[in-house]
Design brief:
Radius of gyration: 20 Å
Distance between the termini: 55 Å
Shape: globular
Oligomer: single chain
Structural class: mainly alpha
Order of helices and strands: HHHHH
Strand content: under 5%
Number of helices: 5
Largest sheet: none
Number of strands: 0
């Protein structure tokens, strides 16, 4: 039995793995609950062509309105901040707004 693991260690390992899987499933679920799920990503990330200032402002306002009613807005924002997402509206904030928030948090 010298090379075999003690049963209690196997159980602990299984519990750790189960906990990690549950955590991963929980992380994935917030995206399934997002108000934007299934919406056109252009609303949140912009078109491939240059927008006028007004078009961009209107599109961002539309995206932020979706975020305002989203049940996982906070999870979305925290994901974007952790991942340092460089583009798009996440959790109701633009790229520049997220950068400013990260700077404030660092101070």
């Amino acid at each position: 039995m010298a090379n075999e693991q003690h049963p209690s260690k196997k159980t602990r390992t299984a519990k750790t793995v189960a906990s990690m899987i549950a955590s991963l499933e929980s992380d994935a679920r917030w995206q399934d609950k997002a108000a934007c799920k299934g919406m056109d990503p252009i609303i949140f990330f912009g078109p491939e062509y240059a927008e006028t200032v007004k078009e961009k402002r209107d599109r961002e306002d539309q995206a932020k309105a979706v975020c305002e009613i989203c049940p996982v807005k906070k999870d979305c924002l925290e994901y974007a901040l952790d991942a340092k997402e460089p583009y798009g509206i996440w959790g109701g904030l633009t790229e520049l707004e997220r950068k400013a928030l990260l700077r404030r948090r660092a101070s």
